Every structure is written in structure tokens, then in C-alpha cells.
Amino acid sequence: MIPFDGQFAQNYVYPFAFGAYNAEDAPPGYAKNTNAFEILADLSPAFQARLTTMDPRHRKPYDAMLAHPRRPRITDASKATSAAVQAMPRSPQPNQHFGWICLDSANNRLIVSFRGTEYFRDWLDDFDFAPAPYSPIPGRGTVHQGFLIVYEAVRESVRATLSTLIACKAAGLKEILITGHSLGGALCALSALDILNDLAGNLAPIVYTWAEPRVGHPDFVHFFDTRVNICYRMVNLWDVVPHLPPVLALYEHEGSSLHIDSGFTLDIVHNHVLVTGYAPGIAKWNQDHPAKLTRLGVAPQFPLVGKSA
Description:
single chain; 11 helices; 17% strand
């Protein structure tokens, strides 16, 4: 197993996860349509017609994504409360922006960064656990149907952009980093196998997620774990979302969990969003686990990773 890199998570990965929420500006250091390209949801009549045939509960994650504004609303602790989020207006028009694909030429790396939704309670209410076959690669397990609908909405956009970038830069590219927060974390798991199956089979995969819910049943998780060597899920100890869907519904986590502690609060929004649930938590983890001591193999005071979350 490749060791978890806390400094890499905090200083390199986190800005992409947070930047995925901003449709107006590319992540820091990148320029739109130069080395940063939008992940766009399918709003075609054909896809929308397909959605009308589905149980409304299965569409709730997708509907919550479309309702999100084109810029992040939670940018500091004062806005990271359940009451503040409930008072925030939804987007009057569907927000087609679901994240960014960036080209880091200096490190010969592609980055796929998915956003989630600050209105995550929209899909937690009356949350259902219905599974569906993993459609991108038939016969490779079952996954949560609501999360799969969201991925199917962006699949063609992701694959088209990656195909172009890989074709142009194939000789130099070495790895692909996939990251995302909340629902975006679920998209990481669903997209990684699809991308590695044919488009990026020669690139080393790195998956770092934040507040990711459980995505698949054991058959899907086993397939994922045999294909992706580096997968760390950052889990705030006080966040409820990584515990859904429940294990009683036979859902499991892929990869390895890394537990961080943002500080106890009863507010589920505060515990879940990036600026208060995860940025302070990963900073504290790095403070408690200096890179030098980690490299020297100094034994930690508690387990760092595991499958328990």
C-alpha cells in the first residue's frame, strides 16, 4: 500500500475539491479551456425523458446537484450551519457544472475533481438504498442507483475531455488524480473504474475523497480494490454522510479510510462541508503527524486507516 500523504491532501488535493464547486473560475493556478475544462451534466431532452420514468427518490441526488448555485455559498464558518444552508436560495436554472478536469503539465498528471452539493440534506431526506448494476462495465457489481444516475449524467462529458487530453499528452502523462467531496466522492468511485478500464489504463490512479458515502455492494468494491492501488477516503469522525447507505443494506466502502477530527458539534452541516468539517481536520492531522516522523516509521497513537467507516 502506498502511504497516505497528508501534506499532498491538504495543499494539493483540497484546492481541487473546493474549487470544483466554482463554475465561474477554474481551480487556483489553472485557466478555463486552457488547462482546466468543465465537467458538464447532460441536460438533453433524451436524458431528461429517461429520468421521468424513474422513481423520484432515485433522482434526489441528481436534483440536489442541479439546484446548487454556480459558486460555493459556504466559504467560512459563519455560513456552515444547517440554518444558514436552509435559508440559501436554490439555483433558478439547473447548474450544469459538476466539476473540473485539469492538466498539471509540471507533474505529468491529470486531475478529475467532482463537486458535491451544499444542499446534501435534500437527498438525505427519505434516502433510499436501491441498487442498480454498474452500467459502465457490465458484470462488475451493483452500486447505489441514485449515485449512478448522477455519474451517468456526466459520463460522456468526462470521457470526452479525458480522451482529448490523453490523446494530446499521451507520451508524457504518468498518473491521474481523482478527487471529490460528498456526492462528488461517490462520483470518484464510479468514474475511476470506468476511466481506468479503457481511457487511462496506462496511468497510475490516485483517488483521494472527502466525506464520501458508501457507493457499492461487495462485488463492486472487490473489483475496485483490485484495480485501484491508492485510494484514501478522508472521513471526519463527526460526519454522518460516510456512514450512508448503511451496512445493513449491504453497502461497503472501497479503499482505505483516514479519520480526521474537525472538533465535535451537533450541526451536521458544520461536520460535513469542506471549510469546517474537512479543512481543519486535515490540517490538525498533519500537525499531529509530522511528515518527518511518518517517514521514519514512528508508531502512531491510534489506527490511521481501515475499512470501518
